[in-house]
Amino acid sequence: MEQLQIGPAAMLEDEISWLDNFEPTWTNELETSEADNILLAGHLRLIKTLLSLCGSEKEQFGPSLIQQLLDDFLFRASRIILNSDSSSSTTASIHDFHP
Known about the structure:
This is Gamma-tubulin complex component. By secondary structure, this protein is an all-alpha fold.
């Protein structure tokens, strides 16, 4: 990393951007594909490693990254229900509830 002059903080920003843009592929059973699960797991492990290398810089990434992981991957259905307006005519798709 030193030879390439790339710091873990810059790589972490790239990984967070990747997470923001990640769109899973859905199977016929409305589940994410096995390949997407493996890909996502690899990126999450890389994020974990980069956070351990960031030192004190990780404090700036932590709050937004934790919120994103909770909202988009762990409790996605809860976030959608919480953010939906009961008087809204649009209903959530079944795809919205499968991270």
